[in-house]
Specification:
- A hairpin with a 5-residue loop joins strand 4 (about 45-50) and strand 5.
- This protein is mostly beta strands.
- It contains 1 helix and 26 strands.
- It has one domain (about 5-375): TolB, C-terminal domain (Neuraminidase, 6 Propeller), CATH 2.120.10.30.
Length: about 375
């Protein structure tokens, strides 16, 4: 159902205070914003099903299925141990690459209580509007005592292994440099939760946490994708006060937090004297001041084909989607989109046809679809 239509032509070409050279970019085409669904309680993630419907997580503990712009009854069979507090709750939903034949859906969520909580990943088969054959495939350890910075984004690689981002819990920054902790890492597991034998820090000890580590030195990375055209992994992460980052993720690499950062602590003090250090990777792009990046997508499709190969980042702080103009692996410009909505944007996804879907971050959150104006 079409609830409301917006038509705007406004965009802002940023001056790129993120250390980018000025560049003339083609303007974003004329577009229309359609409301697909509303009344969602802090929607966090969206997945496209093969039948054309959508799965949308609500952080407060529901999984909605949206068909023909109508929200179905909540899907049953969700985890019974979801911890909803602060930034915790039901987070990401992704489909197995072979979903059409195996029906596996993967869900990340916070579990535990105020004293002991963690990020957990469950998989289950989606049959109709029911999740069945539930299996916990991963839990981040050690548990923590803060209800924030869970991270929780996931992305499948071509070999059907699954990447999972784990955050720093705000108070556990030192764990970012410790391979015996699964906090503040990108984790890589097989689709059944087992350890891939070619992970970079596999040891002879089957119980070693490092077996699961793919990369480290992160903070709170809420954007993650595999770009099949470039054959690279992109991630974005929240810095403290400044120092938000876009990174290209490689196995075994140290991304530096908290030893190197462009950001300050929230009270204005320096976190580290270093902005670079030997054997620590610099970000592909630094956002200072912070923009609070969240979801991320690479554009492909016949709609808005001008964007093909470029990145889209949902931005919480400035209430927009950030269009990153790419030249190969380099960001050569940025454009601010959809600011007229005046809504925090939690996630952005690109439909196979090229239309853009966004989730607004509020207790009356919405699913919005952006299409070219001429396609109405």
């Amino acid at each position: 159902m079409l609830y409301r239509v917006f038509i705007f032509g406004l965009l802002i070409l940023l001056s790129c205070n993120s250390h980018l050279s000025a560049a003339q970019q083609a303007p974003f085409p004329s577009y229309t914003i359609q409301e697909v669904a509303s009344g969602l309680n802090f929607p966090w993630s969206l997945a496209f099903l093969p039948d054309g419907s959508l799965l949308v997580t609500e952080r407060t503990g529901k999984l909605a299925r949206i068909s023909h712009d109508k929200v179905s009854a909540p899907i049953t069979g969700l985890p019974t141990d979801i911890y909803v507090k602060g930034q915790g709750g039901l987070l990401e939903v992704v489909l197995h690459p072979n979903f059409a034949s195996n029906n596996w859906v993967y869900i990340s969520y916070a579990t535990g209580n105020d004293d002991q909580n963690a990020l957990r990943v469950m998989r289950a088969k989606l049959i109709g509007n029911k999740l069945v054959e539930q299996q916990v495939v991963f839990t981040v350890t050690p548990f923590k005592s803060t209800p924030v910075h869970f991270a929780g984004r996931m992305a499948f690689l071509p070999d059907n292994t699954l990447l999972i981002t784990s955050g720093d819990g705000f108070d556990y920054r030192e764990d970012a440099q410790r391979l015996n902790s699964l906090l503040v890492k990108i984790i890589r597991i097989n689709d059944d939760g087992s350890v891939p034998t070619n992970n970079p820090f596999v040891t002879e000890n089957p119980d070693s946490p490092s077996n699961y580590v793919f990369s480290y030195g992160h903070r709170n990375h809420q954007g993650l994708l595999f770009d099949s055209k470039r054959n690279v992994i992109f991630s974005n992460e929240h810095g403290p006060d400044g120092g938000d980052e876009l990174n290209i993720i490689q196995a075994g690499v140290n991304y530096g937090w908290p030893v190197i950062t462009q950001g300050l602590d929230y009270i204005g003090s320096r976190i580290s004297p270093f902005t670079e250090y030997p054997n620590m990777q610099q970000p592909r792009l630094d956002w200072t001041p912070s923009i609070a990046p969240s979801g991320m997508a690479v554009h492909q499709g016949h709609l808005f084909s001008e964007l093909n190969g470029d990145l889209l980042v949902s931005v919480l702080k400035f209430k927009e989607v950030r269009w990153l103009h790419m030249d190969g692996l380099n960001v050569v410009g940025q454009t601010s989109l959809f600011k007229e909505l005046e809504q925090r944007v939690r996630d952005v996804r690109v439909h196979p046809d090229g239309s853009i879907y966004i989730l607004t971050d509020s207790e009356n959150g919405k699913v919005l679809r952006i299409i070219p104006s001429e396609d109405i």
